[in-house]
Amino acid sequence: MPDGWRWDESLFRGSAAYYDRGRLPYAPGYTDRLAETFGLDGRGRLLDVGCGPGTVILPFARYFDEAVGVDPDPGMLVEAGRRADSLGVRNVTWVQARAEDLPCGLGAFQVVVFAQSFHWTDRDRVAATVLEMLQPGGWVVHLSDLKTPRADPAPLPRPAPPYDRIVALTRAYLGEVRRAGQGVLVNGTPGGERAILARAGFADLSRLVIASGAVVERSADDVVAWVFSRSDMAPHLFGERREDFERDLRELLREVSADGVFAEQLPDTEIRYGRKPLPS
């Protein structure tokens, strides 16, 4: 859990409706790679902790008999259920709970996934609980965008979204220290997942990077959705100044791209995973 920060239920309040449109996708084929790596055959159970609007669990669920998505934000689960219906995914159950509430009587799983959610939790406690929830030989997966800049960035046919200026505008409205729910992140969000998993008792710890490289176009509406999908820029944080902020944000975007079209290269996807040891 971030230093000096305490979770509260407003962390992603109002963000769910913007998440699917605003967030960039993970690298194509990452679920196939995981299925191949873990030898998945359509049986077993999947748990996605901090599932949000179903970003990972919905494409991954087809490799399992059953999948369970857990998230503390009711708006995220409503959006996840809506997307599951639209995609025809029928084998997922949604549970409103924090990671710290586990095991919640959910039973045993073959794979447990954290997709950019682990850092919001009491990680040592949650990792120990997940180890107990996994079947012997089962896998824990930590999925995120690769933060290392690409050595060979692709040329962009359009201006890139002005992320640095967007952050600066946000700080002008919300203060210099990054917001998160009712608190702030003085030191940002923590890393070091490998050490946490090793301390919990996971074995065969490995890292996989799946390249993307694709260049995609983004509209001004897409970029605005990215802003409001984030915990540090969630709509509720702006209060009565929400409309003023969005007006200033859209004016900034027009300054950078008069026709409101941007381009960016999709980040690679970094996957860290480990296995629950088999009985000796």
TrEMBL record:
GO molecular function: methyltransferase activity
Keywords from the UniProt entry: Methyltransferase, Transferase
Boundaries of every Methyltransferase domain copy: 47-138
A GO biological-process term: methylation
CDD domains in the record: AdoMet_MTases
Superkingdom classification of source: Bacteria
SUPFAM superfamilies in UniProt: S-adenosyl-L-methionine-dependent methyltransferases
Cited Gene3D superfamilies: Vaccinia Virus protein VP39
InterPro entries, per the entry: Diverse_substrate_MTase, Methyltransf_25, SAM-dependent_MTases_sf
Protein known as: Methyltransferase domain-containing protein
Organism: Micromonospora yangpuensis
Record lineage: Bacteria, Bacillati, Actinomycetota, Actinomycetes, Micromonosporales
